[in-house]
Specification:
This protein has 2 domains: 284 residues, NAD(P)-binding Rossmann-like Domain (Rossmann fold), CATH 3.40.50; 103 residues, 2-Layer Sandwich (Dihydrodipicolinate Reductase, domain 2), CATH 3.30.360. The protein is 41% helix and 19% strand. Helix 1 packs across helix 13. It has 403 residues and is of the alpha/beta class.
Length: 403
């Protein structure tokens, strides 16, 4: 059967999670005419851009536990989804559940995952990549899909060292698999499987993924875009907007302290210091990049508050110095729904990734920097400058003809 040009695959790692479930229901809401609030690619500035229509996306994916019906119920109970929308999408969730493949868990979680996931943990890294590729091929043939993109939405991984040989731009990542330790990041395995199958890969988490040189260069050689890392949805987004104001007005930031509370499964995972390290590093690094060198105190912390569920709160205190050494301060509180902020960006990034592929671009896509805390292909963290770069990339149809 020939691929249906009207059907595009959205293959989500963590398909039963809160963000993925919000994406699933959001796509159905968009099909019914709900306004795409929060989607960058849907603002009027980009009306003439040939982004893939959201109505074409169909969700498939992997997970290591959970149930998407239960996730939807939790999102209804906490005010993220309406009960009418959850009821309307019950059959859609049934179809998704039947198609979800066992995910690749971290080695330390072998005792708490179901047997089908444990079976994949017993495989070698090469075998795991092979079964992930088989999953992708099965989904591509099932509809069949004209194109697809893989988005990594897994729970924050434990921080582990990536072997030095993975930073060699000329290395063959498939050969490196054979000699890599058992705690190699699953994000690398998913990224390698996606790129090998010709699918763009988006890393929405702090995991290394396409930040690893061997994977990024392999994607470039294959002509497949990779986007990441670590979606920027809340406190860090505000930092990248506010910090340039202090810089450009010549005000001296002496201290910037941020405190975050989160109550969903990501919040629970980030209570583990091994999982929290990468997230904190990405959240704190943006200030030095924007404000430049100087003597200042910066800090950021995250606490798990179960009663908040999918809602997160950030409080930031900025101590700064003005003319004649006058000391002043700014404080802000950000309260938002984690999944409702992230889900539209997942759709944006899928559309951006597919546009980049249609233009023949491969490797890290620096133009996607406004969406990430640790963007690939650029050291710029100033949100407005990132958006200028993104707008130029979007409009550059002559240099990037449609393939």
């Amino acid at each position: 059967m020939s691929p249906d040009p009207r059907k595009l695959g959205l293959f989500l790692v963590g398909a039963r999670g809160a963000i993925a479930t919000t994406v699933l229901h959001g796509l159905e809401a968009l099909r019914s005419g709900v306004s795409p609030i929060g989607m960058v690619t849907a603002i009027p500035d980009f009306d003439a851009v040939p982004f893939a229509p959201t109505t074409s996306f169909r969700v498939r994916g992997w997970d290591i536990a959970g149930d998407c019906h239960q996730t939807a119920s939790e999102l209804v109970r906490t005010g993220v989804l309406s009960s009418d929308m959850a009821d309307l999408c019950a059959n859609l969730r049934d179809r998704l559940e039947m198609s979800i493949a066992p995910g690749i868990a971290e080695a330390k979680d072998s005792d708490i995952v179901p047997p089908e996931v444990r079976d994949r943990l017993a495989m070698t890294h090469s075998q795991r990549v092979s079964v992930l590729r088989e999953d992708i091929r099965a989904w591509m043939a099932e509809e069949p899909f004209a194109e697809a993109v893989v988005v990594y939405l897994a729970t924050a991984e434990r921080t582990s060292d990536v072997p030095e040989e993975w930073q060699n731009p000329e290395a063959d990542p498939f050969e490196l698999l054979e000699q890599s330790p058992g705690d190699l990041s699953p994000s690398i395995l998913y990224g390698l499987a996606a790129v090998a199958e010709g699918l763009p890969f988006v890393n929405f988490t702090p995991a290394p993924g396409p930040q690893v040189t061997a994977l990024a260069e392999y994607a470039k050689r294959q002509g497949v875009p990779v986007l990441g890392n670590d979606g920027k949805t809340g406190e860090t987004l505000l930092k990248t907007v506010l910090a340039p104001m202090f810089r450009d007005r010549g005000l001296n930031v002496m201290a910037w302290e941020g405190y975050n509370m989160l109550g969903n499964r990501d919040g629970a995972a980030l209570a583990d210091p091994e999982r929290r390290e990468g997230k904190l590093k990405n959240k704190d690094n943006v200030l030095g990049s924007i404000l430049g060198p100087g003597q200042r105190h910066t800090g950021v912390s995250i606490d798990f508050v179960p009663s908040l569920h999918d809602w997160k709160t950030a409080w930031d205190f900025i101590h700064f110095e003005g003319f004649l050494g006058t000391q002043m301060s700014l404080q802000f509180t950000w309260q938002g729904c984690d999944s409702a902020l992230a889900a539209p960006l997942v759709l944006d990034l899928a559309r951006i990734a597919l546009l980049a592929k249609s233009r023949g671009e491969g490797g890290p896509l620096g133009a996607a920097s406004p969406f990430f805390k640790a963007p690939l292909g650029t050291r710029v963290h100033d949100f407005h400058r990132q958006m200028d770069t993104f707008r130029r990339w979007v409009s550059d149809s002559e240099r990037h003809p449609q393939g």
